[in-house]
Amino acid sequence: GNFQAGSSVNLNAVDLGTAYAAAYQDPTKATKSAVPGADALTDNLLRPYRGLSNINQQTTVFHDMYHSVQTSFNRRFRNGVQFGVNYQLGLSFVGNTGLQERLVHNADGSISTSPDQAAYENLNKNLDNRRHVLRANWVWDMPDVKSENSAARAIGYVVNDWQLSGVLTAGSAPHYDLTYSYNANGSAKNLTGSPDYNARIVYVGDPGNGCSDNQYAQFNTAAVTGPGFYSTGLESGRNLLQGCADKTVDLAIARNIRLGGGRQVQLRLDAFNAFNTVIFSGRQTQLQYVNPTGLSKRNSETLADGSLDPTRLTPRNAGFGAVTGAQGLRNLQLTARFSF
After folding, report:
1. pLDDT digits (tens, 9 = 90+) for 259-303
2. Which of 135, 198, 227, 271 is the most buried (most CB within 10 A)?
3. Between β-strands 111-113 and 9-10, what pairing exists: parallel, antiparallel or unpaired?
4. Which helix (H) or strand (E) element contains residue 150?
5. Burial state string for 30-43 with b = 16 or more CB within 10 A and e = fewer than 16
6. Strand partners for 137
7. Which H or E element spans position 323?
8. pTM of the full predicted structure?
9. Neighbours of 159 (CB within 10 A)
10. Per-residue pLDDT for 154 more than 70?
C-alpha cells in the first residue's frame, strides 16, 4: 500500500475519455454544455461495472531503486578535540512508487494495462533523490589557564573548563512540483474524461531550479500553464523542482563548575541557527485559474504592469511562486543545571 501512494489499484476506474463519449451523456439534461464531460453521467455510471464504486486491489507491480555512497568519519576525543562527519551522496532514486496503474477495460470484460503505461512511468520515474546530505559535529575543550600566579589563577576561575560544540546540517532540499486548480470547469472529468485520472501542469519554458534569493519569485512563473481538455495526463513528470539547500550551524558553549562531593553546576548557552541563515522552506506552488479556456490567473504575485501586488507581500498571502515559509532564525537558549 505504501508503494501505491497509500492506496490500492482501482479495478473499476473510469477509462480515459469515457466522459466524452456520446454513449455516456446524461439524456435528462435539456440544455447541453459546451464544456467536455459536463453532461456526462454520474461517476458510478461511467464505470465498467456500472453502479458500483471503487473495486480496490493490492497489486505488486510498484517498486523503486536507490543508489548512494554513504560515508562516516569520526575522531575520538583526544587533546581536547572530537569531531565526526556523516556524508551521503545520492546517485539515483527511480521507480514507479506512488504512481497509478492506468487501466483499459476491454469489450470482452478483460482488464489490461494501458499501452501508454510505460511512457507514463518513464515520465514520472524520478523520485526525491537528495544529491547531498551532510551532518557534522564537533567538540572543542577550550584551553585552560594554568599558573601559580594569583592574577592568572583568578582569570582561570573565569575562563577554564569551557567547551565549545557545534552541529552543521547541510545538504540538498526535497524536490517538489507545481500544480494547478480551476475555479470552474476544470475537474478531472472535464480534463481527461475520467474522474480517476488527473491532468498535469504544462511546462512551456524553463522554470529554473526551484530556489532563488528572491522571496517573491522562487521560480519562473511564466514557464508553466494549465492543462486543457482531452488530456491524457502526460503533460509533465514529477520532482522537477528542488527547494533551497540547507546550511545551518548550531553552536553551544558550556562550562561545568565542580562544587565537590559529586555536585556540580553546568552553565550552557545554545545558539540554534547561530549565523542567522535564511533558508526558504515553503513556497506557493499551485497556480490558480478561473477556467481552462480563459486561463486567467487568480493568484499572481504581480500586477499587470509587472510590479508586486501590494496585497501579497507577506507569506500568508503569497501569490504563485512566492515564499510561504522559512526555517527559524537565530534562537538563543540559556540553561543552568545543578546536579548532585
Report:
1. 888 888 989 999 999 999 999 999 999 999 999 998 889 999 999
2. 227
3. unpaired
4. helix 150-159
5. eeeeebbbbbbbeb
6. 84, 167
7. strand 323-326
8. 0.87
9. 12
10. no
